[in-house]
Every structure is written in structure tokens, then in C-alpha cells.
Amino acid sequence: MDAQNTVKKPQITKETKNKIRVDFERTPLKERLKAKFGTSYIYQKVFLSIFRLVLLIGLSYIVIYPFISKIASSFMGMSDFVDATVRLIPKDFTLNIYKAVFIELDYWKAFVNVFTLSFLSAILQTFSCCVIAYGFAKFKFKGNGILFMLVMLTMIIPHPTLKLSMLQNFKDFDILGIFGLLTKLGILPDSFAYGLRLTNSYWPLVILSACGLAFKNGLYIFMLRQFFRGVPDELEESAYIDGSGVFRTFFTIIIPLSVPMLITVFLFAFSWQWTDNYYIPLFFPSGRIWDWSDVIREIPISLETDYAGANLFQQAIHNTAGMMAIAPLIVVYLFCQKFLVQGIERSGIVG
Amino acid sequence: MTNNAAVKAPKKRRRAASLDKKKARAGWLFVLPFAIGFLIVYLPILWDSLRFSFYHVSSQTGGGMVLEWVGLKNYTDALFVNPDFVQTLISGLGQMAFDIPAIVIFSLFMAVLLNTKMKGRAVFRAIFFMPVVLSTGFMAALESNNVLSSYMDSTTGMNDGSGRSASSDIISVLDFEKLFDQMKVGVEIVAVVISMINNIYDIVNRSGVQMLIFLAGLQSISPAIYESCQIDGASGWETFWKVTFPMISPMILVNAVYTIIDSFTAESNQIMKFINSVYELEINGNTISSAMSWMYFILVILIVAAVAAICSAFVFYQRRD
Question: Which end of chain A is least crowded, N or C, by CB within 10 Å?
Fold first, then answer.
């Protein structure tokens, strides 16, 4: 009761016509400090936040360390690899590895190839997954459940299971045996007897991407489906009432609405295609395009040696090439990682 | 009047049905790319893969291939003739039995940490999600046969984080072994703990997507629930177990299944490596690797189904509808 009486009422004074000033009496500094530091709560909080910070920094170190050590070793000269005193800071600082990778291994050629490939296939995958996922999320039709189970199935099957047969099927691509049949009937020339030869071309990748069957596309379809499920039906219904068709609604209302989510999916598709080392070697058995795997596999001629630390030096060259290959990806990631987190948050995989 | 109503009623029903049908047709149009692709491209691939595992396959130069029926020979060869397959399978499964719970628990822990408000949260998030984008494909392959790391580790104490030894720089595993030895805990437990410490880099690297999913789940929990907990005087520990944990349990199911699928189909796991190496060696058309990977695939499906069944018994759904 006493405390209530001692607190003065706030004083209100009118300064100008439209402005008033309210003066509160503040609690004395001593009491405020006592309330703040007198309890164990604040110490607990500080202790916890320090603990958290140390833990996070330690774990981030584990994530970043390989990158740091790879970058460090990329600047080292040959003698540094036999010198036990050299740790992260090179004594024999040189840019030889970078130069060699750039010039002798045709870094730019691989960069241009992989960039076009990843960019186009990521766009295609994002679009087709978006369309497919919208169909699964918003329409009730017979077979919806079963088809979606099949999408999940494509995600579960391990790659090597399909390696041989995928190669064979695209080597002699045949739509349900139609080409073979037409050749037998004499409508098509004999060269079509085993179907179309699609290896050493981009077609297998294009076909797989367009059908939502490429690498991890099941995951994208799943994510987008969950996202579209969260979009209120009323939005589309009002569009239908205004006379917009299903496709027009999809392209003019749904797609602009889901741009952040689409960027997330695009990022995933782009970066996983960028680092892909499964499909490209499989579809290009005679190795006609120059991509990262060529850059990483080769050793530049000017750097070939056979001294004691050659093994390590070659490893450092491979590491450097790998780092250079993913450097553009790191830049893209740093700019877009906000979308990555936001997109997942919005997708409501939560259900 | 009655006649009129009788005429009207079916008309109305038909109209409603036609709208539904229209929508169903539109739905089919949307999923058509997948349906066609699955039927024309994927199904033949799948079917061929299954078929190859029962055949001896040799490809012709002009195109096409010669198939020779061998029955279950590939399977029996894989199981009883190949000396390494069963062993690799068992040790690989054992490894994953440790890894998968570790990944799920670790990513939940990290998601809770990264969800609290603090300075530099965006930076930490950026760092921890980096492996999602970067350590796949050729980077993973590069890491897995890194000579540099072992050298640096042994001579200078530096390592390249190839997994096996990334942590030994921070905490010396030998010290741990000594400590546990003095504490007189069983050798098996020590081995488990040591292997977990050694695997920490691997686990951090593989839990990126899971962290994202958990984070999304945590953010979907209404702050009002936490507020009322605070008012009722619940401690942070209690709040976690009584509110956060049940609310996030559907996510645990999703993540458990995702982690299983992801680590079973990762190129870097030892079973996949083994199958790939067998595939590389098959020059004269043996398809033992097909048989192996089919057995492996069926095993994966069984494990996923079992885990999903067990987990879903404990999952709490807020809305039961």
C-alpha cells in the first residue's frame, strides 16, 4: 500500500496546441540497479549466453576450418608441404596453383559450361516442380495419392540402383518401344532400330528436369506442395469468380505469390546441379563437355613433380581446384542465404 | 411442382459434378509432366534395373544389348560369393545406427540454439547452413579421399577436416580415452563416445537441411504458448520438454525419415561406395551391383517404414482433424 502512495502520478502538461508532455518520476538509480543485478536471474542469463556463444563459435569453427585450411594450402609452395613447421600460414607464398588451374585447366571453359547448364536446368526444374506440386496441392483427382507416393519413391531409390539401366535407356532411348516397332514396320530407317541415342547430349538432363525426375526433385515437389497447401483457397476461388481460368490464376496469382519459395528451390537446384558429379559423367561417357570433374581430376603439367611431398602437393592442387569451383557458389550463397531460411520457414513443412 | 423440382435437382447435381470434373482435369494437366515422365522414362529405367539384376548383360557395339537369364545367381553371388558385401552392409548399417540419431538430436539442439534471439544470429545461421549448399557432389567426393588431412594431422596437428580427425585438434581423443578408462566405464561405451567425437565434423556437415526443417517448425509454434508458460512460472527446461518437444515431434518424424533417406542414398556412405566400386569393375556385363543395390534398396524401404511406424506412435499433433 505504501509503495503505491509514494509513486507520483505522471504529470501532463500541454506544450503546444497539438503536443502534450508527460513527465514520469523515475525510480531512483540505486533501486533500479538493485532490481537488475540483485537477483541471480541476470547472472544466469549472462552465463547462458556466454556458454551459447562459445558453443556456437566452436561449432562454426568445425564447419569453416576445412575451408580455411584448403585456402591456406592453396597459397603454399612446394617446399611448404615437407616443412613440418608450416601450419596455416605459408612460408613460400605463391599463386602458382591458381595460375595453373586458371590457364592450363581451362577454368573459364568449365565455369561457362557448368554455369549455363546449372542455370538452365535449375530454371527448368523449378518451373516443372512448381507446376507439378501445384497440381498435387490444390486439386482433388483420382490417383493424386498414388502419384504422390511415386514422387516419394523417386526420392528414396538410391542412385547406383539405376545407374546401369539409366545409361542403357538413354543410350537407346525408346518411348515404350514405338521406335523399334516403327522400324520393324519399315516406316523409320534402320538406324532407329534401338531408338534414339541421347548420350553425349543435354537431352537426358532436359527430359529428367522437365518431368521432375532429376536430382532431388522429389524433395522440391514435396516442399512446394506443402507451401501451396498453405495458400488459402479463397484466393483462387475469388479469381475463378472473377472469370479467370485455372492456368491464368496459376500464372498471374500463384506464381507471383510464391517467388521467395521459388527462389529457395532454384537455389537448391542450382547449387546441387553445380556440384553434381553423378549425372554429367553418366550422360557424357565420352566426356565431351569440360566440367568441374575434369578440372579437379587433372594435374596441371607445369606443376607435375616427383619430390617427397608430391602426393600432398597434388592433393593441395585438387583442393584448390575444388575451392575455385565452388567459389562462385559461395558468393551466390552469401547473397541468397536469407531466402534459403525464409523459404523453408514459409514452406511450412510443418504440415 | 414436384415434377419441376425433380427435373431441377439432377441438373444442379450434374453441374456441380462437372465443376469437380473440370478441376480434376486441371489437376491432371498440372501433374501430367510427372505422370508422363514417370511412365515413359522412369518406369522403364526402374524395370530394366530390376530385370538386369536377374540377367547377364553385355552391350553391343551397334546399340542394344544381349541379355542372358541367370536367375537368382547375381543375388546369391552377392550374398555368398562376394567376400565383402555382407560385411560392408552390416558395418555400414551399424555406423548409420549411430549417425542418424546423432544427426537428429544435434540438429534439434542447434535449431533451438539458432532460434534464440541474440547478436550475430544471421552470421551463425549462414555458417551452419553452408554445408547444405556446398558439401555435396564433388566436394563430398573430394573430402572423402583427402590425403592432405591425414598428413597434416599426423605431423603438424593440422588437419583438413576430412571427417575422421577434425575434432582431434580441438579435443584430443587420446585424453578422452584415458579419462574414460580411469572412470571405469565399459570399453564399448568408450568406443561409441570416441567414434561420435571423431564423427562430429561429418554430423555437423550432414545436418544442415534438418536444422532448416526444425527451425521452420520452431518458428511455427505460437509465442502465446511460451508466454503463458512463463506466466505460470515454468522454467526453460520444463518449457522445452512440455511444450517445444511435443510441438516439434512431427518434425522429428520428418527429419528422421529424411535423414535415413539422405544418409542411405549419399554417395559418401560406405555401402554406396562399395556398390559403386563393384559397378566400376563390371566390364564383362556382370550385374551383381544391380542385385546388390536392389537388396540394399529393399532394406532401406523396410527401415524407413519401421522407423516411421515407431516414430509416428509418439508424434503429437496439435490439430487432430
Answer: N
**Sign of CA pseudo-dihedral B208, B209, B211, B212:** positive
Tell me, what DSSP letter sits at residue A276? -
Q: What is the DSSP letter of A184?
A: H
To probe the interface with A, which of B29, B30, B297 has the most A CB atoms within 10 Å? B30
CA distance B165 to B155: 13
A65-84 tens-digit pLDDT = 778 877 887 887 777 776 66
Structural domain count, chain A: 1
Which of A62, A276, A312 lies closest to B200 in CB terms? A62
Return the exposure string of B118-135: e unless at least 16 CB atoms fall within 10 Å of the residue's CB, then b: eeeeeebbbbbbbbbbbb
Alpha carbon distances (Å) from A202 to A164, A169, A284, A290: 18, 15, 9, 13
The continuous run of DSSP H or E covering A43 comes out as: helix A41-74
Q: Which of A252, A65, A26 is nearest to B162 (CA)?
A: A65
Binding-face residues of A in 244-303 toward B, CB within 8 A: 246-247, 250, 267-268, 271-272, 274-278, 292-293, 296
Kindly report the pTM of this predicted structure.
0.77
> How does pLDDT run across B175-224, given as a tens digit for each residue?
666 666 677 667 777 777 777 676 777 788 888 888 888 887 887 788 89
Contacts of A286 (CB under 8 A, 6+ apart): A200
**Full residue range of the structural domain in which residue A274 is found:** 105-298
Q: Does A114 touch chain B (CB under 8 A)?
A: no
**Is residue A127 predicted with pLDDT exceeding 90?**
yes
Question: How far apart (Å, rounded) are the C-alpha atoms in residues A339 and A264?
Answer: 6
> Phi and psi for A40 in degrees, rounded to 5?
-80, -10
Q: Which domains does chain B have, with CATH numbers?
A: 83-133+204-314 (1.10.3720.10)
Cell 514422387 belongs to residue: A151
Q: Which residue in A164, A172, A167, A278 sits closest to B53, CA to CA?
A: A164
pLDDT digits (tens, 9 = 90+) for A333-344: 888 777 776 666
Q: Looking at the predicted structure, is the pLDDT value of residue B161 above 50? A: no
The reported pLDDT for the residue numbered A92 is 75
Residue A85: inside a domain = no
The domain that holds A169 is classified in CATH as 1.10.3720.10
